Known about the structure:
Layout: H1 10-31, H2 59-70, H3 72-75, H4 93-101, H5 123-134, H6 151-161, H7 163-166, E1 173-174, E2 180-181, H8 189-198, H9 213-228, H10 243-270
Antiparallel strand pairs: 1-2
Helix pairs in contact: 2-5, 4-5, 4-8, 6-9, 8-9
Amino acid sequence: MSGRKRRWHPRRMLAVSAVLLLGTGPAALAASPTPDGAAGAAPTAGGAATGQPTPAPSAGDRGAELYRQQCASCHGQQGQGTQRGPSLVGVGPASVDFQLSTGRMPIPYEMRQPRRSEPVFSAGEIAALVDHVASFGGGGPRIPQVAPGSASAGREIFAANCAPCHGATGSGGELTDGWIVPPLYEATAVQVAEATRVGPGLMPVFPSQVLTDQQVDDVASYLRQLRTERLDRGGNPLGRLGPLAEGLVAWIAVLGLLVAAVRWLGRRAGE
Length: 271
């Protein structure tokens, strides 16, 4: 054999290199370390790396968030009150639930007597806000548990304690200096009991020493009956202003018809 060194053909060298690269490439890639010695993808926000869903905010967090957004500008961050709104410390859950469930709060602008309207918040949001305001401390009436009562007994209690302002049929009325007494047709049983215990606006407070829980249940049952009964079988209720006002309207209508009839007969007689 010749003593000369054997030379590798360029094509043969290229093929050998490709085989070595294919054999060692996957092992090199698998052995390459990740930063901080941890393998796998980098964690992302919200726990995406672990596949766990982001936990929903608790009711307390939701109530605090809603309060900061809708209430704190007037009532203060801790319910201490400001020049634009009274303190909420010690008002109690019943008062907060009444104002929110009747749509009287929050108000779009400052007013002396907020009127009933559609609630801004859902039932769950109202419950979260009630709990958050209760965390300010001070106690106050709790949301009452209303049970079915006696409508007949409630009618007597209503006539003695409520009808002088709200009217015999709960239609409401007007007071001096632009204040009004709201009608009670849309009030739920719980809202009736809440208003009785907290006395919103100019309404007096009726504690349990004045009206027991059973008597409040009776009044709520009577007002529920007012909403469900056909109280206006004669036609137009005329705002339920009472028999005197209705009688006056009837007399005016009848006299008008009599005058028109007399004039018609007079024209016929002169022809």
